[in-house]
Amino acid sequence: MPAERIARFAGQRVLVVGDVMLDEFLWGKVSRISPEAPVPVVEVSGESYYPGGAANVARNLREFTARVSVVGLTGADAWGERLCTLLAESGIDATGVQRDPGASSTVKTRVIARNQQVVRVDRERPAPLTAAQFERARRHLETAIAGVDGIIVADYGKGFLNQDLADAISTLARQSGKLLAIDPHPHTSLQWHGATAIKPNRIEAFSAAGMRLTAPVEPPAADAALLEAARRLRELWRPENLLVTLGEQGMLLFAGGAAPLHIPTRAQEVFDVSGAGDTAIAVLTLGLLAGASAGEAADLANRASGIAVGKLGTATVTRAELEASFR
Questions:
Q1: Is a pLDDT exceeding 90 seen at residue 193?
Q2: Picking from 51-65, 162-176, 178-192, 241-255, which range would have the lowest pLDDT averaged per residue?
Q3: Into which CATH architecture does domain 2-20+52-104+125-324 fall?
Q4: Is 19 a catalytic residue?
Q5: What is the DSSP string of 31-79?
Q6: Are 107 and 125 in contact (CB under 8 A)?
Q7: What's residue 268's pLDDT?
Q8: Is the four-CA dihedral 138, 239, 212, 284 of positive or negative sign?
Q9: Which of 8, 13, 71, 149 fits a disulfide with 96 by CB distance 3.0 to 4.6 angstroms?
């Protein structure tokens, strides 16, 4: 029964590794065009802040289990302090988040007027991981690995993840027998070996496979270019499961020697796609940890992301909402 499977999420212990950031939302209304330039003037009525990036994956996990921790990097600035405070207030263990004066916190500010995003402003200075930052992350992972059931890597291409750290994570997961799920980034070109599941979106899949992006084909299981990209990625990464998310087309799962499994989207209305991938990788991982088959876990992830895109902002999905999707 799906409800029984979802209930088992609460017993899972998950560690998220990746690029943490702060999501800032400025809410307001537009009543006129600026006399200075042909742009709308947004009268701000409120603001809100949420953990973003890898921290949003942790936030999604926290809706289902109390045992969530994060490894990442922020600057020793007000933004980093706010992010760590938000994580602590959510009950997420952020002792693995380094606050380094030499780093810069990543902040994404979205201006929303009448439920529409007007503009997004990114404050970031991506930089390669230093030797000292890598060593601190590696030591924390070695200490924390025994106390978790699975690891999720959320790569946003901001520099925290490099090949040395990817190799360390893969080795630790393999030696400890822990589930490893990867949400890759198309521009980092990191090699992953022995992952339980890797979840690229369509653009990421083609980029990582070294192929030119083509237009989607219906049905996705008959999309020759997509099938070739997946074949290359399975040969390159050798994951147990490859799940390609396809937006309005849903998802396509490649598991073992089985034929590709197409899972149609369940989204009813799409208000905001930001964070939907974070929801998908979180629920996919929890499903696998709870004993679901790859197909069942992918269906759970598909349902959860369909709920997430129906919400405005960097949204999470609750256990009650996910259970209701089966009724």
A1: no
A2: 178-192
A3: 3-Layer(aba) Sandwich (3.40)
A4: no
A5: EEE-SSSSSEEEEEEEEEEEEEEHHHHHHHHHTT-S-EEEEEEEESSHH
A6: no
A7: 62
A8: negative
A9: 71
CA distance 7 to 9: 5
Q: Is the dihedral of CA 70, 76, 79, 81 positive or negative?
A: positive
Nearest Cα to Cα of residue 25 among 43, 45, 44, 48: 48
129, two tokens: 């991981």
DSSP string for residues in 268-324: S--S--TTHHHHHHHHHHHHHHTT--HHHHHHHHHHHHHHHTTSSSS----HHHHHH
Three-point CA angle 313, 325, 2, nearest 5°: 125
Assign 83 to helix, strand or coil.
helix
Instruction: Pull the structure tokens for residue 292.
Output: 């679901």
Q: Name the catalytic one among 23, 183, 278, 299.
A: 278
The pTM for the full model equals 0.95
Q: How do 14-18 and 68-75 pair as beta strands?
A: parallel
